Structure formats: C-alpha cells, structure tokens
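Hey, weird one. I pasted the Tungstate/molybdate transport system ATP-binding protein sequence into the form twice and got a warning about non-standard characters only the second time. First submission, copied straight from the form history:
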Amino acid sequence: MLEIDRLAAQAGDFRLGEVSLTAGAGECHAVLGPSGSGKSTLLAAVLGTLPVASGRVRLAGEDITRLPMEQRHLGYLPQHLGLFPHLSVLDNLRYSARARHLPEREYRPLLDRLVEITGIGTLLQRRIANLSGGERQRVALVRALAANPRLVLLDEPFTALNESLRRELWWLMKDLQRERGLTVLLVTHDLSEAYFLADHITVLIDGRQEQSGDKSTVYRRPASEPVARFLGLKNLYPAHRVGAGIVDCPALGGRLVVTGADVSGDETLLAIRAEHVALRQADDPPRDGETRLTGRFEAVLDLGEAALLHFRADSGALLEIRCGSRVLRKYDLQAGKPGTVGLPASDLFAIRRRGASELSWPPTAQAGALTL
Ligand SMILES: Nc1ncnc2c1ncn2[C@@H]1O[C@H](COP(=O)(O)OP(=O)(O)OP(=O)(O)O)[C@@H](O)[C@H]1O
C-alpha cells in the first residue's frame, strides 16, 4: 500500500504541495492535471530523484521518504522513457532485475509474458536507436514491470500507442494488479485511461492538490471550477445565492433549490454533465424536479458510438449534450432545428468558484427546479 502524506517538494522555482493520497495493494491512483501542474514532480519525489521538502511517503507501512532511490525497488516508466541506448532491448528489460540480483528463474516467467503480450519478442536483440516510438514505449513499459515491483510509477505510459494496443495494455495492467497486487501511481492526460485504470483520482492544479477521491466522485462531483474545466465539463453557469439553499441561475431558467449543500457565499456555479442533459419532445409531459429549456440545436457532431450536440437555450445559455448516436437518428436531430431539453434535478450540482466565497463541502449538492 502506498501512502503519501502532506508531501511537498521544490523543483527550481516550482513548488509542489501538500499532496496526500493513498493506493492500496492492487489499486491504481491516477494523477491528472494540466501541463506543468506538477504531476511528474510528484512522481520524482516518490521515486527519490527529487528531495522531499516535507511530508512522508510510506510503502507497505515502511517510511521510504529518505531511502536512496535504488533501495526503494520501484518500477518507473518516465515520460521520456529513459531507455539505455547502448544496451539491447533484452538487456534494458533485464536491467532492474539484475540490479536487484534477482535470479533469472524468478523474473523470467513474468518478463516472457510481458514480452509476449506487448509483442516485442522480435525486438529483443535490437538496439534502442532502431526502434519506432511505439516500440520504445512498449519496451519501457515492460522494463518498468519486469522486476515485479511493489509499486510502479507510470508517467504517460501509453501515449504513442494505437488504440487497440493501448486497450490491450490497459487490460494487462488490470491483470497484473489483480494477480500480483501491483500498486500503480499513474500520470496521464487521458481521462478515459484514468477512468479505466484508476480506482482513485487526484487532480493537481498549479502544484496544488485541488481534489482527490474515488474516481466516480471526482467524475460526478468536481469540487471546483478548475477541476470541472480540466475534466471537460462545459456546462457551468453563474448563479447567486438568494436564500438558504436557493440559487438564482438565469441561464438555467431562474431559481433552483440546492438541497445537498447550502451555498454559503454569493457566487457559485451550477453544473450539469453533457451526458445528463436529457433530450425531450416539445409535448413530453413535465417531470418532477426537472427544469425544461427550449431552444435550438446549433451543432450536431456524430462521433461514431456517441454524438455531441450544442444546444442554444432561449435564455442564451449554450449547453453541450452527449448522447448515443442512435438517438440522433431516432429524433432526426440536425443543426438549426428547434428542440427541448430537460435538466434532471439530481444531475444538477453546485461548484465552488475560484476567487469567490466557498460552498460548504463535501459536494453532495443536488439542485432541483423550485416552484415559486
Ligand atoms: N528541475 C526543475 N527545475 C526547474 N523547474 C522545474 C524542474 N522540474 C520541473 N520544473 C517545473 O515545474 C513545473 C511542473 O513540472 P512537471 O513536469 O511536474 O509538470 P507536469 O504536470 O508533469 O507537466 P506535463 O503534463 O507537461 O508533463 C513546470 O513548470 C516545470 O517547468
């Protein structure tokens, strides 16, 4: 089990901290955040290549905060791969196990399996310089995993790979986590990768831990505007507190009640995920607690499995809607057509606005249309 407790570190002028997170044996914790937010810096501090200014890192109960890097026995796939160019692929793969003086019979079965699954068996005698980008990435992944580490740190491990290989490796990671109790600290920009692999998610913004929790909570209830925007939530509308648990949100049709968490300041944002905006027919009977908006579809984009729509409400608000592409055909949705959408009360939630007074938290807000 990995426990990071109020970890702070300094890289040049950049300060990271304080970060606290955990990952149990066999779990994956994904670290997300915009470029330059400190994700690789966090990995460097856990790995031991960057000194820790304060805080603790524990692995299986052992405090490794000040342990020399080579005694931590961690698997590491750096963003720039860090393969040894003068060694063959096979010698790169054996490097960690040999450095730890593991006998070949101990590490070879896992290594052979990883080689087979990643399809690099024909590359073993090649030099790193002669490999393609995707081949190097697979070699670096196998190298990070081959010595059967307790914890593996993966910095953007699957970026140069095609979709089908990436998915295959995602499943491989799941297998290794389950079979060997492999614990993973993963840095990624890819939200679907984080949702697939991770049990928990931490979002870093400007070196600060903005939110951390189980992945569905972070997904369903981003705690602040920067997290929401980073996670791709577009439907955010300014709202004002007008009474206990009541907000006025002109863009979403007026007054709404916030039942889960009261708004303690004046300024907040009401939010709804694109996939929670419901498509309705103009003559659909009203539903309890659902806010209806009429307007016009401005754009309709068929992405294959799913579709993205832009809907301009009569109030002027723009809503992004995500639905299955079959729905497009069912309702014959096209840009320029008028339409009606529903905002289910349980899917509307309040978000803390940076720079403004804060909401009371945890974020269990549920908003519903208020009949006044
Ligand atoms: N050794 C260093 N000296 C000075 N500045 C550094 C050093 N290492 C990192 N930084 C700075 O710290 C900030 C965070 O860098 P870091 O690599 O951790 O970000 P990141 O979130 O991993 O970004 P990306 O997604 O682009 O890889 C950046 O502004 C970077 O330039």
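That's the output from the first submission. The warning seems to come from a hidden character in my clipboard, not from the data itself. Residues 11-12, 14, 33, 35-41, 79 surround adenosine-5'-triphosphate (CB under 6 Å).
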